[in-house]
Amino acid sequence: xxxxxxxxxxxxxxxxxxxxxxxxxxxxxxxxxxxxxxxxxxxxxxxxxxxxxxxxxxxxxxxxxxxxxxxxxxxxxxxxxxxxxxxxxxxxxxxxxxxxxxxxxxxxxxxxxxxxxxxxxxxxxxxxxxxxxxxxxxxxxxxxxxxxxxxxxxxxxxxxxxxxxxxxxxxxxxxxxxxxxxxxxxxxxxxxxxxxxxxxxxxxxxxxxxxxxxxxxxxxxxxxxxxxxxxxxxxxxxxxxxxxxxxxxxxxxxxxxxxxxxxxxxxxxxxxxxxxxxxxxxxxxxxxxxxxxxxxxxxxxxxxxxxxxxxxxxxxxxxxxxxxxxxxxxxxxxxxxxxxxxxxxxxxxxxxxxxxxxxxxxxxxxxxxxxxxxxxxxxxxxxxxxxxxxxxxxxxxxxxxxxxxxxxxxxxxxxxxxxxxxxxxxxxxxxxxxxxxxxxxxxxxxxxxxxxxxxxxxxxxxxxxxxxxxxxxxxxxxxxxxxxxxxxxxxxxxxxxxxxxxxxxxxxxxxxxxxxxxxxxxxxxxxxxxxxxxxxxxxxxxxxxxxxxxxxxxxxxxxxxxxxxxxxxxxxxxxxxxxxxxxxxxxxxxxxxxxxxxxxxxxxxxxxxxxxxxxxxxxxxxxxxxxxxxxxxxxxxxxxxxxxxxxxxxxxxxxxxxxxxxxxxxxxxxxxxxxxxxxxxxxxxxxxxxxxxxxxxxxxxxxxxxxxxxxxxxxxxxxxxxxxxxxxxxxxxxxxxxxxxxxxxxxxxxxxxxxxxxxxxxxxxxxxxxxxxxxxxxxxxxxxxxxxxxxxxxxxxxxxxxxxxxxxxx
DNA sequence: AGCACGCCGACT
DNA sequence: GTCGGCGTGCTC
Length: 810
Hints:
Layout lengths: L1 E8 L10 E4 L13 E6 L4 E13 L2 H4 L5 E2 L2 E2 L8 H14 L3 H7 L8 E8 L5 H7 L5 E3 H7 L2 H9 L3 E8 L5 E8 L3 H9 L6 H11 L6 E3 H8 L3 H9 L3 E8 L19 H15 L5 E6 L5 H14 L3 E5 L7 H11 L3 E4 L5 H12 L5 E4 L11 E6 L17 H12 L3 E5 L4 H8 L4 E5 L11 E6 H7 L7 H13 L2 E5 L8 E4 L16 E3 L4 E3 L6 E3 L12 E4 L3 H11 L5 E4 L9 H10 L5 E4 L12 E6 L13 H13 L10 E6 L5 H8 L2 H14 L7 E9 L2 H18 L5 E13 L2 E10 L5 H11 L1 H5 L3 E6 L6
Parallel strand pairs: 2-5, 13-18, 13-19, 14-16, 14-17, 15-16, 17-18, 20-30, 21-28, 21-29, 27-28, 29-30
Antiparallel strand pairs: 1-2, 1-4, 3-4, 3-6, 7-8, 7-9, 10-11, 10-12, 22-26, 23-24, 24-25, 31-33, 31-34, 32-33
Helix pairs in contact: 7-8, 11-12, 21-22, 22-23
The chain binds a DNA duplex through strand 1, strand 2 and strand 3.
């Protein structure tokens, strides 16, 4: 009987994107199962790489099975499967829908620590010349490839290799290590301990204590080293001695690096639901009990109590003995949110988000895998949580762009959630105050079931009054200003009443750059077609695309003028203005610069929440999910910067942002007020935001989308080609257009090819096209074919990416 | 990705 | 004559 395994190897190329067949050596027989990671030899040099086992089977005659001379699996990297059958199937789905390699999909599903790293070694296997031995190998048996490279004598070394004096060894390094602590297990029976006690010398108090401790332990009890010391006063050295005498065994215990272990969570109980919440709850629970894979769209205004519906439906899933996933945008995964879940469900909750260290993420993942957690709360990638028997999947703030990954595999968590719901026969709930047009339209067509929450859960809370200020008029009154007169008056008023103010600066489409007032010179990035952004925290100019960094110039490099100044409405500049206007006010600034440090975000919010500041000034990040009862005024300084961007979703994004930020005002008994400053006061996105009328906005925007042949009336695919040479990239795109035109129906529309808005990034040129279509039965095949045929060009440095339903067009 | 093989220019 | 450039094929 011969055992073989099909393995997906860690070589992300089109040609190797198929399973390879390996022999399972006798000593690993029975150990290897689908979903495990293994170490396999690959290619001419038999370098060792990581692979995923897809399936195993036994076969009488391997030659019959495979025309290749199969190689053997070297080792197993896992004790058990790390991906179950569902995940292996989901990887197939992702591969097809996102045009990516299977290996990339598989790796994306696991915590990053489980991605193997490789180390290459040069190993002495025979005598080598003395100078090589001492100068290159420094007298050692083996050196790393990097050390060999640094010696500058690679050609000599390669010759020695051909003579079989040196060998190359490939090492697959496993990085996922559970944190372990040491524990003690007794190896002696009660009687044996008595015997040992007789043999003890007088005065061996430590050993006597150890024996007493062991005697009190059951056969398979494990006591931690710490406990041994605390309870019995047995020191580590005594334990080691005990181990040497064969009295006990020292074992490793896996412990969880619980990132929230320090906190205690008081139990929080379910609140009563109003009629609308109850109706939503009942619809979802009924679907769950019927094992329906219905997708719900829960459209609920800010403060309508969506979260309470989530919590209670999850509780119901747990009661049914099932599990649940709740996705929230990265930015809303605040301690407040986590707290709310932990206090309702306690230890049953695992949290996955980017703020955790790699090790912590792995531990949370392990916690789910060993079924210690049945509720998973996390950002996009939490959709891969290895839960079984899922009863419910919730995606909060469904419209958020962060649910789509913006590099390969370009999956959308919403699509995968629906796929998993079909696998588990469970409902999906998409929740938002401002659903994406796509989802809202699907609800209209009854693909999703629409559930509406139109009342505030806390009835005392009033919807805020929204004031739209026409900045064109403000400008006509005098010089260009950041703050309009009405906004200034209202801020003054709140400061007098000791109430809090939130000010938002819309940074989308904005950056703070440096410009010479004499000649207009703007400091550009040397690698990209974009100006450098000023970063006050590091006192440098940085490129947001490639990371290039340089000093702040004091004189203009072109005309040598000293009048080279900071431009653009950055948060720092607004902060300075505010301090001039309101010297007594305590101002907090929250932007990428002040929240970069781990935990800084949390700390700023706490400071504001504790009323240690009067004004919170920030970018988009303040719009999401914070809940401060004393905030009675929200000001949006520039509502329309996004409106001018060449993106058909700009109105939608503006509406969503304004609605969200307005929701920050008047969360409690005090009435809230919102001031929106804009140059486009009559734009429908701003008008409907003022009226807080999502349905009105939806109708208007649908009309605009219909006119422009955009989603949800058309599907879209974006293809981008990039190369160091501008011509090569452009030429490729024109070829692709020709190829597409030959097969596409006349109803489909191709926009472009055009250079991307920032054409050059990191010294590569980017060209793109956008395809809009309603129905193209062969599209999948054609796009795959394009990728296949492009393989030759990939060798020459051309990169092609296909983004299905892209969210960003610029 | 990374290695071998193979075919061309410019060196001891 | 050979060393080494990188274009191409292939990896169970």
